[in-house]
Amino acid sequence: TSAPVTDAPTDAPTDAPTDAPTDAPTDAPTDAPTDAPTDAPTDAPDAPTDAPTDAPTDAPTDAPTDAPTDAPTDAPTDAPTDAPTDAPTDAPTDAPTDAPTDAPTDAPTDAPTDAPTDAPTDAPTDAPTDAPTDAPTDAP
């Protein structure tokens, strides 16, 4: 009974194809790190199962490829973090949609720049409020 143990290293290359299906489940955890680079292309269908574990490591490499697909799903979650970086690029596109929401916050800062453009439109609405302040200037 000691012969198989003694002969194993010598017989392994010859026996491997025959023994592989039987030995694979037992040997897999031990062999995985060594076999992974070779097995990767064949094992690719494992990706959906492995993705949650691999995501933090793969994210920087995968980001450019994944961005167009992931953006609509990730946008609500990523927006608060990404907003300061994205603001200058996104402003021209987002301004018309965001204006009504942002106006009360932005008004004091934007007033001097916006006044000449907005004055003719705003005058009838603003006149009763502005009259006492404007009277001395407007009197002549």
Structural account:
The protein is mainly α and 140 residues long. The chain is 95% helix and 0% strand. The chain is built from two helices and no strands. It has helices at residues 3-43, 47-138. The radius of gyration is 34 Å and the shape is rod-shaped. 0% of the residues are buried.
Short structural description:
The protein has helices spanning 3-43, 47-138. By secondary structure, it is an all-alpha fold. The mean pLDDT is 88.
**What is the residue-mean pLDDT, rounded to a whole number?**
88
Global structural class:
mainly alpha
Assign a percent range to the helix content: over 70%
Summarize the helix and strand pattern as letters: HH
Principal-axis shape equals rod-shaped
Count the DSSP helices. 2
Q: What's the β-strand tally?
A: 0
CA-to-CA gap between the ends? 120 Å
Give the secondary structure arrangement, pairings included.
Layout: H1 3-43, H2 47-138
List keywords for this structure.
140 residues, mainly alpha, 0% strand, 2 helices
